[in-house]
Amino acid sequence: MFTARPFVILLSFVLISHSSFSRDKLVPGYYINKQGDSIVCKIYYSDWLINPVTVLVEVNNEKRSFNASDIKGFGVYGYNHYKSALTTYHINPISGVDLPEQFLDSVETKWFFLKTIVSGYYNLFELTLPERSYYFVSEGDSAISELIYRAKRIENQIVEDQDYKNFLFDLYHKENIPLSHPDPITNAYYSYSDLRPIISRLNKNHIEINTSPDIEAKIKKNKPAFGIFAGGMLYNFPSTIHGAFATDVKFPSSMSFSGGVNLAYQFPGHLKSIAIGISIGYSGYHLQFDKTGVNKFYQSVNYNGETDYTEHISSSNSFISPILYLNYIFNPLSKTKVYLKTGLAANFSIGSNKDIVTNMSYLSNTTINGIPSPPQSGQGEITLVVTKKTLFQFDAGFGVMMGRHKLEVNYFFPVQLATGDTKSAYLFPSVGQAIYQEDFKMSMLGLSYCYSIFR
Fold it and tell me: What is the pTM of this model?
């Protein structure tokens, strides 16, 4: 029976992964002093949701704390760069019940570490404060300018300031960039996802200006990764069943080829340590158990007997298995990454001989009231266990990832395979009664290699 327990475990995994980032992580990076020198260091980094006021670094085991006015900027290798700037921004609210009736011109000027979104001849920066986010643009070596976005309320309608769009139109006109229909600026929201491609297009006119590889690498890696995988799946069956004559039948493990496709997305936060994905795989098992034996009973010299029998118990099944999973990478900034995985699999049976059946034959000799009865014989096929068509299974594992290559081990926890029904009212000689075999469990252990085609 499927329960909510896997969902509880999945939720716990997410909460534990998220809580692991409540403390700063010491990661490799750099800071740029006032003279423009780049100093390699380690940075206490926590993937800030709002821009930091100070940054704590470690150089030669010595800790140093910097405000935005103390240095020119800092960065984490392969992830983000922050630029120090004396920043002027409008304090006009953009939501809530306190919207003004007119656009406010009130501004504040403070030192901030601005997060670099796009770098090149044109640079796009983000400033996230508790109340809202701001975006800024700089051209070449010129000062940073705010992309002004304000809002006001006229009666029951909210009117948005279009100043930032006019500013972007002017830049496109200056660069002689033709606008398609519909153009990207008119429909652009004041957001990272809409502004980034607009500024990136401006930089195509200035290809001689090198774009920071760290920033571009981060943007590219945020796209979903599609891959293929192949490996082996070891099916284990810890339960025992009754045959028509044989008792305590336990199948050996069954090895199968497994393969399929995989789609994963790394969340941009938390140093891209958390990923969600879905995979669709194929695997299956083939079981068989053969036994020849003699069942004897003896009550007295007048009532006894024996049965010679042969049984061939078998089952073959194949599954198409979509798996929804989460990954947590322990060392996201290393070339060789180690991760944990947890997920929920839905195994859909596509096998034509999925039920467990026995093909048996027997010859019985019985003495009743001291008189031997004529021998009785028979043969046929009996369904021992009716198996489910769909199985939900909790999955946990770990893996190692290097570039496009990934090696992964997964364990699928035991799940009930039997429905508890029977297709036959046959009287089992082994126990003297009809059996509804309700317990037949299955677990799996998989090893797979995955190659990312697009990432």
Answer: 0.62
∠ at Cα 307 (301, 313), nearest 5°? Answer: 155
Neighbours of 43 (CB within 10 A): 22
| Domain-located, residue 101 | yes
Q: How many domains does the chain have?
A: 2
Domain that holds residue 280: 225-454
Looking at the structure, tell me whether residues 136 and 124 fall in a common domain. Answer: yes
Same domain for 214 and 232, yes or no, is no
Residue 69 lies in a domain: no
- Tokens representing 77 are 């290798």
Q: Considering the domain boundaries, does residue 169 fall inside one?
A: yes
CA–CA dist 28, 43 (Å, integer)? 6
3-state helix, strand, coil in the chain (%, to 5): 10, 55, 35
Same-domain status, 214 and 278: no
Contact 56, 74 (CB under 8 A): no
The first and second tokens of residue 264, run together, are: 């994963």
User: Helix (H, G, I), strand (E, B), or coil: what is residue 435?
Assistant: coil
Q: How far apart are CA 100 and CA 11, in angstroms?
A: 42
Residue whose C-alpha is closest to residue 289's, from 339, 336, 254 = 254
Q: Which run of H or E residues covers position 405? A: strand 405-416
Q: Are residues 141 and 249 in the same domain?
A: no
Q: What is the pLDDT along the chain (455 residues), one digit of tens a residue?
A: 445 555 455 555 545 544 444 445 788 899 999 998 999 999 988 767 889 889 999 999 899 999 999 999 999 887 789 999 999 999 888 887 778 888 989 999 999 999 999 988 999 999 999 889 999 999 987 889 999 999 998 888 888 888 999 999 999 999 998 877 678 898 899 998 899 999 999 988 887 555 444 444 444 446 788 999 999 999 999 998 888 888 888 999 999 999 999 999 988 666 678 899 999 999 999 999 999 999 888 999 999 999 999 999 999 999 999 999 999 998 877 788 999 999 999 999 997 888 888 898 989 999 898 899 999 888 888 888 889 999 999 999 999 999 899 999 999 999 999 887 655 445 455 444 445 567 899 999 999 999 998 76
Check whether residue 212 and residue 229 sit in a common domain.
no
Cβ burial of 82 (10 Å; 0-12, 13-18, 19+) is buried
| Tokens 């599609």 found at | 226
